[in-house]
Amino acid sequence: MVVYQSSDSVPVMKSGKEIVMDQSMRETDLQPPTGEWLDIFGNGRLKKKVLQPGGGRDSWPHHGQIVKIHLKTRLLDGTLVEELPEFSFTLGDEKVIPALNVALQIMGMGEKAIIQTDGRYEYGTRGNLYPETPLKAELEVKLLEATDAPDLKLLSPTEKIALATCKREQGNVLYQRGAYDYAIHKYDTALQITKSISKDDISSQEEMMEVQVKCLNNMAASMLKLEHYDEALQCCNSALICQPENVKALFHMGKVLALQDKYSEAIQTLCKALELEPRNNTVSTMMKKHREHEAAKQAMDEKMLENPSSTHKHQAMDDKMLENPSSTHKHQAKSAWGLSWKWLLGATVVAIGVIALSVAIYARK
């Protein structure tokens, strides 16, 4: 099998935390035929094989553009691990695995290719990159779309809300897949977009606030999954500042407070949620559970208050022994002497009896 090398120069440079394709890579004329491997770095660590040709060089996406791809992750034996029909991200995003960031910059629109890489370009130098790729796996990628990132300054409030909603929905997909860190990143991006809407635009304020509250609630849920309870509580508080009667925010807050062993506060928060939605079974079930925990805790505290004597008695005895260890040794010595004396007395009685019996037998003779 022939493996083609793209260039003798180093094709990738680091700019801050982002990976940028070297210009020599994008300008190279060497492109292998369909079905042959291209060794992108010339070191065997990142290879690409075209399955279906796409557009020419003019359609290659650029760093900073938003790309949409159809992504399949397979083991080397062909087993499908995951399929994402429309996976979107900003090319160069540090949270996305370097293999995709690099290989897509030399793919034409509509091109389908196989990408093989090692751990360095699957996980980067810090690890925990997205999408999660198992070891000894390959990526099948088809480039569907590449668009310039929108300039927020040029977008209308309606367009900003639509963009923020799109980012939030992307976060929801990530949340459902268990990628909570990346979901939080999407929710935060959506929030930043909404914050760029001018407060003078009164007509968009209500819709903007609705998007913000949804993002904050989803961020709280993600923080809960990551056990970042303080951050989750902050998200709940922010959501309730926008909408004081938001049941979902109250529900998440009650859950956080209970996880922090603040059952009384949790129950009060959930009671308020139930006042707003009396038929909410999820809130009702959680409040019942927290009340049981609180009752059990109170019963245990009362039991300890009612019968502290046994505990104190044992503790006092232990303290006394620690304070005056000589008394313990004296007690042990006294017990040993008492046992020795009793044994000696018994032995003496037996001996006298034996002597008396012998004298009697001798007298009879």
Explain what this protein looks like in three dimensions.
It is flat and about 85 Å long. The chain has a seven-stranded mixed beta sheet with strand order 1-4-5-8-9-6-7. With 365 residues, the protein is of the alpha+beta class. Helix 4 packs parallel to helix 6, helix 5 packs antiparallel against helix 6 and helix 11 packs across helix 12.
Average pLDDT over all residues: 79
Note the total helix count: 12
Widest beta sheet: strand line-up? 1-4-5-8-9-6-7
- SS strand fraction: 15-25%
Shape verdict: flat
Structural class: alpha+beta
Spell out the helices and strands N to C.
EEEHEEEEHEHEHHHHHHHHH
Strands, count: 9
In this structure, how is the largest beta sheet organized? 7 strands, mixed
Regarding quaternary structure, what we see is: single chain
Low-pLDDT parts are 1-22, 327-339, 359-363
- The CA-CA distance between the termini, in Å, is 122 Å
Rg measurement, Å:
38 Å
Level of helix content?
A: 40-55%
Describe this protein with a few key phrases:
single chain, about 375 residues, alpha+beta, 7-stranded mixed sheet, two-stranded antiparallel sheet, 9 strands, about 55% helix, about 15% strand, flat
